[in-house]
């Protein structure tokens, strides 16, 4: 166990996180090469939207596939946490807030057509909408840090009953069974099942051990001058870029209008803000949910429901021709989402604990 | 960085920020750091103080009645 402990400690160092990021970036590029949509080798928000479609929550063509990568992430995190005695039910028991934050994060992700993971992979593929999104994401993290400095907190997190920690892994196994024995996902852009599931499992284990998180990378750098987690982000982008060049997947492009770029940037600011208030980016929320974190599980449910509503109301298009596109309705929703997030951030302080 | 430290575990980042400010004002050299991996899988924030200033920090925390998630020594 001492050996495992020292490996875990190394994985949380800058060098270890760079390696984890390199694995994430490499698998992202490989999954794209194996059939996943362009620059969406890995995108937690996109995967959740597709899973919502596969479960019949929306009917957008091309976005209805039970992505095995996400199931692998959940199971990998659960197995890793279980092996280390870290599979524990916990949460602040403010369910509606967690659902709302997940919902707001997905609202922003729908405008950008992806989350922070996808922004990194777009950048690595030469798509200049990637840096636009990442810039918005960092701006959202800065806004979130301002709110944390003013005292935002969802309150004390408590340990829950042990069986609750098994609920999410059991649901993940159920989803896997549905994927294996249910509709095959023919017609969807997808990598083969064993590769998708295997990549998810590997990243799930590594991310659980290392605490890989794109929001945490910028939060820790800005709040504590700690660059360790940022090494993971850099490792992801650099490795994915190198592999994209080798595989012929890197193409310099900027396929969006100025208004689209504004919408995408604001959308990613909303993702960054909601992630900071929730304590982790969408990918980190998947890992935390696999570990037994009830707030993270509710965050993911909020994301799935909002993805379905956004597509059913035809406010957001699916990942189509353009990298991101913002209708007037989408812009209004994203700006409203930012306003709601800021109001939540200003109003939510635990009573009796702040002076 | 090596040395004998104590981590003050907290329930939220805003708590950590407030504790850091109060301890620094009270003469305890405190710093925000990511929660050491050996103390949990949480990717959040805690307050690090030198272990030899732990008693002084505990007195300040008790006087100001700030709730924490515990103090843990680490190296």
General description of the model:
The complex is a heterodimer of chains A (355) and B (75). By secondary structure, chain A is mostly helical. Chain A contains 15 helices and two strands. Chain A has a two-stranded antiparallel sheet. In chain A, helix 2 (14-33) packs parallel to helix 11 (228-246) and helix 6 (116-124) crosses helix 11 (228-246). Chain A starts with a helix and ends in an 8-residue tail after the last helix. With 75 residues, chain B is an alpha+beta fold. Helices cover 32% and strands 25% of the residues of chain B. Chain B has helices at 13-25, 54-64; strands at 5-9, 31-34, 45-50, 71-74. The longest helix of chain B has 13 residues, at 13-25. The mean pLDDT of chain B is 89. The interface between A and B is medium-sized, with 38 and 22 residues.
> What is the count of DSSP helices of chain B, taking H or I runs of 4+ residues?
2
Name the strands of the widest sheet of chain A in spatial order.
Answer: 1-2
User: How many extended strands of chain A?
Assistant: 2
Name the helix and strand elements of chain A from N-terminus to C-terminus, one letter apiece: HHHHEHHHEHHHHHHHH
Overall pLDDT level of chain B? 89
Biggest sheet of chain A, in brief? 2 strands, antiparallel
- Structural category of chain B is alpha+beta
Beta-strand content bin of chain B = 25-35%
Pick out its properties:
heterodimer, A: 355 residues, mainly alpha, two-stranded antiparallel ribbon, 15 helices, 2 strands, B: 75 residues, 4-stranded antiparallel β-sheet, 25% strand
């Amino acid at each position: 166990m001492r050996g495992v402990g020292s490996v875990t400690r190394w994985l949380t160092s800058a060098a270890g996180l760079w390696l984890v990021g390199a694995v994430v970036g490499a698998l992202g590029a490989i999954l794209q090469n194996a059939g996943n949509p362009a620059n969406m080798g890995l995108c937690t928000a996109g995967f959740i939207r597709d899973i919502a479609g596969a479960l019949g929550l929306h009917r957008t063509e091309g976005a209805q596939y039970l992505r095995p990568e996400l199931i692998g992430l959940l199971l990998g995190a659960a197995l890793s946490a279980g092996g280390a005695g870290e599979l524990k039910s916990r949460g602040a028991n403010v369910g509606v807030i967690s659902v709302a934050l997940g919902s707001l994060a997905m609202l922003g992700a729908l405008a950008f057509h992806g989350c922070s993971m996808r922004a990194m992979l777009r950048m690595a593929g030469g798509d200049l909408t990637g840096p636009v999104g990442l810039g918005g994401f960092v701006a959202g993290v800065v806004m979130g840090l301002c709110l944390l400095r003013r005292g935002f907190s969802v309150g004390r997190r408590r340990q829950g009953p042990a069986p609750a920690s098994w609920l999410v892994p059991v649901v993940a196994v159920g989803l896997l069974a549905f994927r294996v024995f249910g509709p095959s996902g023919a017609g969807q852009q997808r990598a083969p099942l064993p590769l998708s599931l295997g990549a998810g499992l590997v990243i799930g284990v590594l991310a659980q051990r290392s605490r890989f998180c794109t929001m945490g990378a910028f939060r820790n750098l800005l709040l504590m001058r700690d660059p360790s987690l940022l090494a993971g982000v850099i490792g992801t982008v650099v490795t994915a870029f190198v592999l994209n060049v080798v595989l012929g997947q890197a193409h310099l492009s900027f396929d969006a209008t100025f208004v689209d770029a504004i919408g995408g940037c604001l959308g990613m600011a909303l993702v960054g803000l909601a992630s900071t208030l929730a304590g982790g980016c969408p990918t980190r929320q998947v890992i935390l949910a696999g570990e037994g974190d009830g707030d993270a599980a509710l965050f993911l449910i909020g994301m799935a429901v909002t993805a379905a509503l956004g597509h059913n109301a035809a406010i957001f298009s699916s990942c189509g021709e353009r990298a991101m596109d913002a209708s007037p309705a989408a812009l209004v929703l994203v700006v409203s989402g930012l306003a709601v997030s800021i109001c939540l951030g200003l109003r939510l302080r635990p009573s009796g604990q702040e002076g | 960085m090596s040395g004998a430290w104590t981590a003050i575990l907290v329930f939220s980042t805003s708590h950590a920020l407030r504790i850091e400010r109060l301890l620094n004002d009270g003469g305890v050299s405190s710093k925000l750091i990511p929660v050491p991996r050996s103390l949990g899988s949480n990717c959040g924030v805690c307050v690090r103080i030198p272990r030899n200033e732990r008693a002084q920090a505990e007195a300040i925390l008790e006087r100001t009645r700030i709730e924490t998630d515990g103090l843990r020594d680490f190296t």
